[in-house]
Design a protein that fits this description.
By secondary structure, the protein is of the alpha/beta class. It is about 30% helix and about 10% strand. The chain contains 14 helices and 9 strands. β4, α7 and β5 form a beta-alpha-beta unit.
Amino acid sequence: STKKRTMSKKKVSYYYDGDIGNYYYGCGHPMKPHRLRMTHNLLLNYGLYQQLYVYRPPKTTAKEMTKFHTDEYVSFLQTVTPENMEGYSKQLLRFNVGEDCPVFDGMFEFCQLSAGGSIGGAVQLNRKDCDIAINWGGGLHHAKKSEASGFCYINDIVLGILELLKYHDRVLYIDIDVHHGDGVEEAFYNTNRVMTVSFHKFGEFFPGTGDPRDIGVGDGKHYSVNFPLKDGIDDKSYESIFKPLMTKIMEWYRPSAIALQCGADSLAGDRLGCFNLTLKGHSMCVEFMKSYNLPMLVLGGGGYTIRNVARCWTYETSLLLDAKIDDKLPYNDYLDYYAPDYKLHIEPSNMENQNSREYLDKHLVQLMESLRSSEHAPNVAQFSRPPEHQIPEEYEDDLDPDRRDHTSEIDKRIQNKAEYYDDTEKFLNRDTERNISTWEEEKKEEKPVEPMAEENTTTTTTTTTTTTTPSPPENNSGVSDMTVEGA
């Protein structure tokens, strides 16, 4: 049932790779993967990581990418580099790689990590290993079947939804990025198994699609929903259209899983956006969809004022965990980015809201009327369920013997949950990876301590377990699990 039930504590998986913040689109390019590292650092320093099941995303293979993208396009992305790109002039033009979507060092690996988190999250949701899966490195909704677009190369959302469709008859996709989710809509334009809903700026704005008259074709007719918005929409106006429309869609379409793209370029003050939402207005969408208690894949997306992106996704992670966090930001590695107020929440600007009440109501009524033309909870024809997704393991024979700590070996070191001592906290305000390794070296140098009396041991365990992460779920997904990223 899609009816909202009493809120309960969710098991939340979180996908993050410590290398993802190192990728660099180039000087002056607005897309900065560094925002993911800033978000992760806030999650660490707020202590939210203790309530998350943290996983490093597996690198998606080229073969897995071709479940949506063409072989030629994926092969090109895999082969082209900044050093050899001059020899690929025809393909650069053909695949729209160049200006907005530059060739940069590690481009294909970046795509592998982004898609790996979304596919891995979908696999866990299918296997009921978690209730919510978060991949802030995903949400790259503009990528097409054989074309890069809008800073996006591989469409991790489509790949994640294709994985969900192995177990779910109907999947609902919601996009709250300021830009229209054109790549995802196009991928599922002729099927009723995925309903795509996008709230976006429309009219002389990238990518130029998302007209409310674009409703799908064939079996997918009336299963594409587009709400066109003008500049300056604020929290109150956004809520007045989002909740009624999504309530109607949930009642009518009755999905069994949700994919939510949380592009943060719809926030006030975004470098490329033109909306006027605060964190509370943006996160209202996340909280509202969470209340339906369905398996939910939560993804990132746009967002080009990176201090606000980190604020937004940190706050939304806290809501997904039902955790209250302070408006005053904790000390973290990037504190100077948040000057001068050092607060979590942002204020709206004084820009004019060009979305009149009449304009919003007109489109709301039109979209609700269009829904009635679609089949109520459409039946899905019998289909043979595809084989379960297998995430490749790294075998010992393939490991690089010259590399001291291989990724797969590090991930196997699961910290006993009784071994989280208070002195780990002092390291969280600095570089996690460097300081934890320093801490381990200091521990080795300490003289052995005589065993404590039994009653004292019990007391110690009681006090330390209050700061532990939850034990990871049984790792059937083939994804390496970690208790603290970078440990």
